[in-house]
Amino acid sequence: MDEQQQNKTHRKTKETRGDKRREWRKKKDEGKEREGDHGPSPSSSSSASSSSRKGRPTPTQAERAANPKAFAFQSGRNAIAGERRNLDREYKKMHAPLVDRSDVSLDPPPYVVAVVGPPGVGKTTLVKSLVKNYTHQGFSHIKGPITVVSGKSRRLTFIECPNDLNSMLDISKVADLILLLVDASYGFEMETFEFLNILQVHGFPKVMGVLTHLDGFKDNKVLRKTKKKLKQRFWSEIYPGAKLFYLSGLRYGRYPKVEVHNLARFISIIKLRPLTWRNTHPYLLGDRFEDLTDPELLRTQPLCNRTVSIYGYTRGTYFKPHMKVHIAGVGDYTMKEVTLLPDPCPTPQAANTILAKEQAEQQHQGGAAAAAAAGATKKKPTRINEKEKLFYAPMSDLGGILYDKDAMYVNIPDHQINYTRIEGGPEPSQGPGEDMVRTLQDPRHTIDEKMENADVSLFAGGNIIHVEGDTTRRRIKKEEEEEEEEEEEGGGVAKGKKQQQKQ
Question: With a threshold of 0.70, does the pTM exceed it?
Answer without folding.
Answer: no
